Amino acid sequence: MERKNFLKSLVIGAVSSSVLVEACKKDADTATTTTTTSGSSSSGSTSGSTDSGTCSVVPTETEGPYPTHSPASYVRSDITDGRTGYKLTVNITIKNSNSSCAALSSALVDIWHCDAEGNYSEYGGSGTQSTNYTSVHFLRGRQTTDSNGLVTFTSIFPGWYTGRATHIHVHVYNSSGTSLKVTQIAFPEGTGTALAAVSGYSKGMSGYTYNANDGVFSDGYTLELATVTGSTTAGFVLTISLSVPA
Question: Which residues share a beta bridge with 112?
C-alpha cells in the first residue's frame, strides 16, 4: 500500500472508532437513565424499589437511630402506652411481591414512631433527644398479619422532630423471623390533610421538614405514602399496602 493511502486508511479508522465509542457511550447513558427512572411517578422516583412483574417492592429505608430494642417483647395492637395525642388507627396490609402481590399471612410487622413532641421511647438523655425515655416503651408494637395480610394498631398521630417529615417506621419479617423489609411510611401533605389539621401539635409547623426535602423521602416516596382520613375530633385512620419479597 502506498504511504498516502496507508495514512488515509488510518484517519478513516480513527474517525470510525471515535464514532463507535461515542455511540456505545450514548447507549450506555440511555440504559443508565432507563434503569434509574424505572418505577418513577409524579411524586418522584421510587429509588430502591424493584418490580416483580405485577407489583413494586416498597423501598428499603433506614431503621433510624431509634429502633425497638426487643420487638418480640411488645406484641400488642394498642401501642399508645399512656401517650396523649389525636387517635390514629394504623392499617397496614402486607403483600408478597414474589407471588403476584398476594396477601402475605403470618408475617410479623413491627412499627414504631415518635410521640406528639417528637420524642421516642427507649432512648434519650443525651445527643439528639435530650428528654430521657430509656425506661419506657410507648408507641412501639408488633402484630402478625391475618389471612388478608392485614395488621391493625391503635396509636396517636406522630409529631415531628428537626430534619424529618412525619413518618412511621416499619419492619416486616416472615413467620420464621427472617427480615423481609425495613421501610417507612410517609404522610400526605397540604391543605385539608391530617398533617395540616394536627399542625405539629404544640410545636406548630415552623421549621418543619416536608417530604420533598426529607433525607429519607426526597428520592421518592410514592410507594410509602399512606392514605389518611378522619379528623382531630373523631380520630384518624391510616391505610397503606406494602409489597415485600417473601
Answer: 140, 169
- Confidence (pLDDT) at 10: 37
Whether 140 contacts 68, CB under 8 Å: yes
Tell me the pairing of strands 235-244 and 87-96.
parallel
b/e sequence 33-46, b meaning 16+ C-beta within 10 Å:
eeeeeebeeebebb
Could you tell me the mean pLDDT of each successive run of 10 residues in the chain, 246 residues long? 40 37 32 27 36 75 97 98 98 97 98 98 92 97 98 98 97 98 98 98 98 98 98 98 98
User: Residue 31: which H helix or E strand, with range?
Assistant: helix 3-37
Which helix (H) or strand (E) segment holds residue 160: the answer is none
DSSP 87: E
Q: Return the pLDDT at 192.
A: 98
Angstrom CA distances, 239 to 137, 209, 214, stand at: 24, 22, 21
How many other CB atoms sit within 10 Å of the CB of residue 154?
15
Residue 237 exposed, middle or buried by CB count within 10 Å (0-12, 13-18, 19+): middle
SS3 24: helix
